[in-house]
UniProtKB/TrEMBL annotation:
Organism for this UniProt entry: Parvibium lacunae
Record's protein name: Phosphatidylglycerol--prolipoprotein diacylglyceryl transferase
Source organism, top-level taxon: Bacteria
Gene from which this protein is expressed: lgt
Principal location class: membrane
Pathway the protein takes part in: Protein modification; lipoprotein biosynthesis (diacylglyceryl transfer)
InterPro entries with a match to the protein in the record: Lgt
GO CC annotation: plasma membrane
Cellular location(s): Cell membrane
PROSITE patterns: LGT
Length: 263
């Protein structure tokens, strides 16, 4: 029987210039934003947008990711702790972001942007959706480099020991599962689906439901947060938060396919 792989324990600091430290996770955020711009500029003309529009959308989206991601983490995962330590809500350098909160933050930010431009919200949603999964993949790679959000214990040959867990047990490299599912596979499916003309909201719904489904699946291999554990019906918090995404995504997709085209 072969020994399990051991996580390399990468230095979280990619580059140190005196007191300035550039972390890998920050670089993954920059990579995600760069991929968004690159892909967005390739599709801007076909969506009736300019390169400047893509940059403005990215600005609003990035603001929504940071604010929504932090507030989502505070409210969904550690509300009691942050109620007792409110000033730590602003300590972003300590980590703690929620995808589902970031998603809601982006929804609000892009809705505000669409209102300012007097554009249909579906125009923004359907444009942004295919540009997003590769950024999610970059974020999951950042999780893997940091050795955080590791998976549940496994006896499979693909198991990996994460010294950061402190127990020496082989675990699922769930960050890489999410990288592959929510990032690469979802991008391939969504990019192909969105290349053909679709009714309003169909592409947005495809993304929301697709992410929710893949996240729900990946959560079976991901170690639940220690302070939450497994919740009702044997599901994790990530799975409970993904269920409404699946429902809303399917509703939007169905609306786009059947009613949006005739609207």
């Amino acid at each position: 029987m072969t020994s399990p792989f051991i996580h390399p324990q990468f230095d979280p600091v990619a580059l140190a210039l005196g007191p300035l430290k550039i972390h890998w996770y920050g670089l993954m955020y920059l990579l995600a934003f760069g991929l968004f711009l690159w892909l967005g500029r390739r599709r801007a003309a076909s969506a009736g947008l300019s390169a400047r529009d893509v940059e403005d959308i990215l600005f609003y989206g990035a603001l929504g990711v940071v604010l929504g991601g932090r507030l989502g983490y505070v409210l969904f995962y550690k509300p009691v702790y942050y109620l007792q330590h409110p000033l730590e809500i602003f300590a972003l350098w300590q980590g703690g972001m929620s995808f589902h909160g970031g998603f809601l933050g982006v929804v609000v930010a892009l809705w505000v942007f669409a209102r300012q431009r007097q554009w249909p919200p579906a125009k923004i949603g359907d444009f942004v959706a295919p540009l997003t999964p590769l950024g999610l993949a970059a974020g999951r790679m950042g999780n893997f480099i940091n050795g955080e959000l590791w998976g549940r214990v496994t006896t499979g040959p693909w198991g990996m020991i994460f010294p950061q867990a402190g127990d020496g047990l082989a675990r699922h490299p769930s960050q890489l599962y999410q990288f592959a599912l929510e990032g690469i596979l979802l991008f391939i499916l969504l990019w192909g689906y969105s290349k053909k003309p679709r009714a309003p909201w169909a592409v947005t719904g495809f993304f929301i439901a697709g992410y929710g489904i893949f996240r729900f699946i990946a959560e079976f291999a991901r170690e639940p947060d220690a302070y939450l554990g497994i919740l009702q019906f044997g599901l994790s918090m990530g799975q409970w938060l993904s269920l409404p995404m699946i429902l809303v995504g399917l509703m939007l997709w169905r609306y786009g396919r059947h009613w949006g085209r005739a609207a």
